[in-house]
Each structure stands twice: as C-alpha cells, then as structure tokens.
Amino acid sequence: MTRTTPDTSDDNARPRRSLLLRTTTVVGVVVPLCLAGWLGWQSVGGHDRADGAAPAGAAGTPGGASGSGTAGPDAAGATGTGTAAAPPSSAAASSAAAPAEAVPTTPGASTPAGSPPAGPGTSAPAAPAATGTFSATALAGRTVLLDPGHNPGNFAHTTEINRQVDIGNARKECDTTGTSTNAGYTEADFTLDVVRRARAILTARGATVVLVQDGDRPWGPCIDERARAGNAAHADAAVSVHGDGGPAGGTGFHVIMPAKVVAGKADTSAIVSPSHRLGLLLRDGFRSATGEPYADYTASQGLDTRSDLGGLNLSTVPKVFIECGNMRNSTDAKRMTDPQWRQQAAQGIADALTTFLTTR
User: Fold this and answer.
1) Structural domains of the chain ordered from first start
2) Region Disordered: what ranges (predicted)?
C-alpha cells in the first residue's frame, strides 16, 4: 500500500518570505538614519578629538575656562577675554605653567644660574631664574659680606702684601698673590667673577651685599682688614671665596670653618657654632649646584677647621672660606674657567647664604 503526504512546501515558503521582507525593510530604514546621525556628529566637532585629545573648553581644565579672564597673562589657554584658546602642545603647556622669573645679569655672565655647559654645536638650555625658589624680599634687611680672595693687582705690589699683620694668635703676610691655572687664569680673577655673580643673585633677593674689594683697589686689602670689613658692616654672614693651589693630582672643593681661637685680638667663641652651620649649608649647596666632588687631597668630607687664617680669627660675624676647586688640577681648572660653571658656583654660594639667613 502506498502512503501519500500532503504537499506543504508553499505553506513553509510564505512565512519565510514574510520574515525576509520585514528584515529588509528595517535595515533599509535604520542604516540611513545611523549614517545621517554619524555625519552630523562629525560636522559638529567629533573630528576635534580624532587624536584622542580632550576638547578645549571642558570645565575645570586649563585652557577651557570661560570666565572673565582673571588668569594671569602667561596662563596657558587664557586670552583675557573669557574665550578659551586652543589647547597648547605639551611642551608649551609646561613652559606656560611655570613662567621664568627675570634673571639678574652680571658682567661676563654667559648663562643664568644652574645651566649646565652647552655641548658642541648646541645652545645652553633654559635655566631656573637666579632667585631660585626664594622671593625678591627673602633677604630684605639682611647684610652679606662677600670677600673675593686676593687681588689681580697683588703681583705688582709684593712689598705691600708681604708686610706682616697680627691675626690674634700669630703674625702673617698681609696677603698673597694667590694661585692660577697652568694656562694663567688667576685665582684673583676667578674669585672676583664668582663673587660678582653671587652678589647679583643675593641683591635680587633683597640683601645688602658688601664686597671687600670690587676690582677698585690696586692691591689687597690685608687679611686683617678683610675681617674688619665684615665686622664694620655688621654682616649677618660672610663668605670668603678662593681657588686652591693644591697638588696637581688632587681634585675637588672644601669649606673652611673657624676653630675656637681666644688670643690677642682674636676671639671666635661667639661665631664658631653659627659658622659651622653656615659651613655645612655651603658645602651641601655648592656640591648640589656644581656637581664638584669633595676635595680628595685635604679636609674630610669637604669640611676643614682652621685656626691660622686671619680672615676667620678676627671675624666677629659668622664666616667661612670656600676653596671652590683646585686650580692646579686640569679637570678642576677646566670647570673653573667655564663661565657657566662659575655661575653655578655663585648660585650654590648664594643659595647656601639665603638658607642660612632664612632658617634656624
């Protein structure tokens, strides 16, 4: 017996055609609407963020403020009219966020404080302002004595500088010619240059700066007069700047502090402690500013205490000496003849003095 089954092919085809028709209709309507919406978004401003940057004008972000222009003229993105400017590049934003202060200049200064020497074919990078993190009034009412060791004219006045003077516990020569590099750059020229640079920085911070000599004397002064200059000025602190004439194989700097000396005209009892504090600050500040190592041929950890220096023995104000480097060493001599390094040296000295006078 043959079994026959109903033909249902047409019944199955009809619902499938109906579903396909509905799907095609939905796609035909939705896709154009999406495309139109996307094109509209792009035209409004979507392309401004194609590189992933946040849109300018976002509330609470630099460059996007829409207030009355109260931000300073250097503020990134502020135009002073309440209209947000285009966002600056990252480099521009960094410089705008921290505008540089004016840097005091001094004769012969080639770069501001803190600038590393420029390499061949390159220019020196921008440097921090000479006033560093200290305000223009940080040293208001303070007096600083700077003593540039020796004098360029001493070579022509040997009779005068060989005269003996009383330093309290002994008698010593009035002054000496100082040392020099093998190329003939003298200690007296070095010290005067560094001191003038330090004066510019300290003056910018409000200090009254007294120089023992400013290239305005034919020779000297004698070591006892150098001490009296700080005493007469009632200086709050004093630093005598030198370059050492050590062994050619020795390198580095060191700070000399006064020992306790009570003899004759000398009595350092009252200044030993504050001078020691100044010495520590100067050692640390100078090394930080210049990168110069501690002396490896004298002193210990960059510090020495002496009782045979008239400039310290006869001082009644806190005072230290600094030997900024060994001018007889070729490595130190190269640094010390570089004006940029001398600016760094001046920065280290000025910063140490400022810290000494503004902290306890």
Assistant:
1) 143-358 (3.40.630.40)
2) 52-129
